[in-house]
């Protein structure tokens, strides 16, 4: 069905003016790995729709479609999604992505604004993945700004409240580094040992083992 609708897109005014169907088609194509086609559909949404909710959806879907191949374009799309004066289901993700891209560009103040908004919008359990990444990003921003205590607090919130093996180990290692910056060795060692216990096979866990060894600590208790 997705291929048929995609083929009809240029020839059907009715399809082009149906935002719900365009939204479905962009998501369907992206899920099948057809990122360029998904981006084209999202652009049709933006060309044909004036309602802020649909434009926010269009920009967010465009950002998703571009993120693997055109990071600058994806960042701009997510920022434009956030700029729409409406709050849809796409806004928390768009704010998170815009904040992460701003951090990568070294725009710390802008990143904090986006990430704070992402965290505030993701209070529900269904958005825990957005919230954890927003806290991690805010922790990285705090390090850049020379606020290691705030960074350690944010990274530890992530490690205490969540169990995401793709993100938590790096946050724990970052918390340990923040404690190092403050010359708080006991807290640093405690976090490193916990990291080794919880995620021994992760790259961060192996780095923690090396750090503990360098300090004469065997690691797991």
Key descriptive features of the protein:
about 220 residues; mainly alpha; about 75% helix; elongated
How would you describe what is shown here?
The protein has helices at 2-8, 13-16, 19-31, 35-48, 52-66, 71-83, 91-104, 108-121, 128-144, 148-161, 168-181, 185-198, 203-214. The chain is mainly alpha-helical and 221 residues long. Helix 9 (128-144) packs antiparallel against helix 10 and helix 12 (185-198) crosses helix 13 (203-214). The radius of gyration is 21 Å and the shape is elongated. The model has no long low-confidence stretch (mean pLDDT 91).
Describe the main β-sheet briefly. none
SSE order in H/E notation? HHHHHHHHHHHHH
Give me the secondary-structure category: mainly alpha
Approximately how much helix is present in the residues? over 70%
Give the termini distance in whole angstroms: 57 Å
| Principal-axis shape | elongated
Ranges where pLDDT stays below 50 over 5 or more residues in a row are: none
β-strand amount: under 5%
Question: Mind telling me the C-alpha Rg?
Answer: 21 Å
DSSP strand tally? 0
Give the integer mean of the pLDDT values.
91
Helix run count: 13
Brief overview:
The chain has 221 residues and is mostly helical. Helix content is 75%, strand content 0%.
């Amino acid at each position: 069905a997705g291929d048929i609708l995609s083929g009809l897109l240029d020839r059907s005014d009715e399809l082009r003016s149906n935002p719900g169907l365009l939204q479905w088609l962009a998501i369907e194509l992206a899920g099948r790995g057809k990122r360029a086609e998904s981006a084209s559909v999202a652009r049709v949404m933006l060309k044909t729709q004036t309602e802020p909710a649909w434009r926010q959806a269009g920009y967010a879907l465009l950002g998703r479609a571009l993120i693997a191949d055109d990071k600058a374009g994806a960042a701009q799309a997510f920022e434009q999604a956030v700029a729409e004066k409406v709050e849809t289901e796409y806004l928390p993700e768009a704010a998170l992505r815009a904040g992460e891209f701003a951090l990568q560009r070294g725009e710390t103040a802008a990143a904090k604004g986006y990430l704070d908004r992402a965290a505030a919008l993701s209070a529900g359990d269904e958005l825990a993945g957005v919230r954890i990444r927003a806290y991690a990003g805010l922790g990285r921003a705090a390090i850049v700004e020379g606020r290691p205590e705030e960074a350690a607090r944010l990274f530890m919130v992530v490690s205490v409240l969540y169990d995401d093996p793709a993100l938590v180990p790096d946050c724990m290692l970052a918390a340990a580094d923040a404690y190092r910056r403050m010359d708080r060795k006991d807290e640093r060692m405690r976090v490193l040992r916990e990291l080794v216990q919880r995620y021994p096979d992760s790259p961060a866990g192996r780095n923690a083992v090396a750090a503990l060894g360098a300090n004469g600590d065997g690691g797991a208790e």
